[in-house]
Amino acid sequence: MRIRTEFVSQPSSAGTLFQREMEARHIPGGTLALLRGGQVCCCEAFGVKDNTGTPMSEDVLFESASLTKSLFGTLVMRLCQEGRVELDRPIMDVLRDEPWSNDPRFSNITPRHCLCHGSGLPNWQARPMDMLFDPGSAYSYSGEGYFLLQRMVEQIMGQDLNQLLHGYFLDRLGMTHSTATWIPAVGQAFSLGFGGDGSIVKIRDRRRTAGNAPEPCAAWSLYSNSFDMIKFLAYIVRDHGGLEDEVFREMTTPQNRTGEPVPWGLGWGLCRAEPHVLWHWGDNDGFKSLSILDWETGDGLCVYTNSDNGFLFWVELGKQLTDGLFFDDICSFVRQAE
Prior knowledge:
Layout: H1 5-9, H2 11-24, E1 29-36, E2 39-47, E3 62-63, H3 67-81, H4 111-115, H5 143-157, H6 161-170, H7 184-189, E4 193-194, E5 200-202, E6 223-224, H8 226-239, H9 245-251, E7 269-270, E8 277-284, E9 287-294, E10 299-305, H10 310-321, H11 327-337
Antiparallel strand pairs: 1-2, 1-10, 3-6, 4-5, 7-8, 8-9, 9-10
Helix pairs in contact: 2-10, 10-11
């Protein structure tokens, strides 16, 4: 996958495309970043962050939603490399906690199962949870699996997810606006989230501490934007996220749905048509986003929007900004995944 040459030689044309599509799809605001050969070649903000017309800027934060999973997956692989986590050791052999399900199959769930959505856990459910299938035998998208693995990682490391992401990635890469849990500074920088009809559907003014996925949460709680996230994509391209070759190959090898156009690696989506592509999407109420990169060409794309209309928007942008031929496959996958 490559960013089309005309958008590299004239980055303003990418901005023109972004604005045109954003207006056509009634999206109040968003941010765009492009990577070419491992170098950032475009970072821009468009539209507004709220209903009073405050301009979008590089300081504005969005809910990254499931883009959080790609950072967490890379973090887990770093911990495997350090000998702190074993991919195929059952989590309940390590985690000092009551089982989250009464089903005896729960005790067989491993980190590998969680990272490739093969745990058998539902996406979100109150405890005690159901088990949908034997761990490792099928695919079902599960944020709950990521949260379970997060609890084990936090126990091993003696730090919460926010501290770990800052220590391994955010601070090191200069992702200065990003954080994985709500603090007052997030509230000041936060964009409102808008529904498809333009109504406000998301206002964040406090930390989420209740429910099935309190923050920090590996499945959803990173607050960021394209200006910061593209730095993480560049780190994957240039340094494989700090992973040695063997560990990076493990992360990027199909682990689940291997007969499909869109198999799943460890923390990342893959594309069978272009095996050097890594991607993830984000989908929370009021926020839709995409991160995608090709570690062979060094090209990548990051889009954040503050609208429920952002899903088909980033699909269309991907088709026009890159020569990737897999966006319809990704679109079909996302429609049925959650």
